[in-house]
TrEMBL record:
This is Transcriptional regulator, GntR family. GO terms for biological process: negative regulation of DNA-templated transcription. PROSITE patterns: HTH_GNTR (PS50949). The keyword tRNA processing does not apply. Residues 8-76 form the HTH gntR-type domain. Keywords: DNA-binding, Transcription, Transcription regulation. Pfam families: GntR. GO terms for molecular function: DNA binding; DNA-binding transcription factor activity.
Amino acid sequence: MTSRRPQRRPVVDLYERIAEAIRQGTYPPGSTLPSEPDLATELGVSRPALREALILLQEDGVITVRRGVGRTVSERPARRGFERLQPFEGLLGADSTTVRPLVRDIEQPTDLVMQHLPVPASCEIRFWESVVDVDGVPSCLVEEWSVHDEALAAVDPALPDVLAAAEARPSTMLHVIGSIDPHLPLSGASTINATVLGRRRGEVFDRSPDTPVVLVTQVVSMERTPLIAAKYVLPSGAPGLPVRQSR
């Protein structure tokens, strides 16, 4: 019986052709790819086939997509991700991101928050809502809740005052806490789900309520003591989020 050489799928061959053109400098880092019709003509392929390859290239971080700009070739390899806890503005590229505070408030915890944080229903906790812009484009909505001030002070007496003083700063809560001491023993546990924006969040991004999003829910702890519960909302077209795994 003769063995057959495995055949690569056409979309994989097309992926490799485009990736090789990028490596050879035909489409250099930072450049904008030709429009979809022009690129399909250059490569001699159909637009549906090209679109599938482009989706894979975007998923792998070889290219990025920006509304109003198009597809551009990534300038640097994927950044280290969830294996090193850091604020989302860092994960999305600290050199190209800005944080816009939307809400800085004190509120009573919801049932959702109490599922993640050890807080009594009658206490008051901090709620921060921010938008992370990447190259001026809204790319991530960040919603963060902290434990009450007494619990924060039990971990570090400076935490309540530091957070109170930082309310007007363009930073996420995780960034502020981490900036106290970069060597704090912080750890994070995250879950990832797919959903849609909804009306209120859609207004923040100026997108349709039905826009698909990736929702990351994270609990940040210090030495097993939960400090922050957060939601990160990334609509379709947002920059890729690096996640590394090893064994």
